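Consortium newsletter contribution from the modelling node. Members have asked for a concrete example of what our holo predictions look like. Here is one, prepared for the iron/sulfur cluster complex that several groups have been discussing at recent meetings.
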Amino acid sequence: MFKDIKYTLLSMITVFKHLFKPAVTLEYPEKKLKVNEYFRGKPVVKQNCSKCGTCMKVCPSGAIKIQDNDFIIDLKKCIFCGNCTYYCPKQAIKMSEDYELATSDKENLKLIYKIGGENEHNI
Ligand code: SF4
Ligand code: SF4
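And here is the predicted structure:
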């Protein structure tokens, strides 16, 4: 009985301590989180990619495929390790700040970048 009262009081004290502090959560999606510069979001490929294939070799999960002018990243396989960006000799691939990757269609998880052409995914 006394234990219950003690824990109820303790939890109330905790609630009151945080009542007048600013909120630590955001009203997503109206407000979006500003991620730090080291955040690893959706990988994006730039036009200066030379199709050397280094990123494909260092990708631990086989998420990258290069077919003709298509540079394909399968987000179902990508583990967001950033290896492809560290080893690219042209700095042509980078991890963006885009973390809004949820989808109900798994086809949307296949990113197809057109190398040497315009594409909505390219930066
Ligand atoms: S992104 Fe970089 S490492 Fe990958 S194929 Fe293009 S130039 Fe080579
Ligand atoms: S971030 Fe890692 S897993 Fe994803 S494509 Fe690059 S190397 Fe592969």
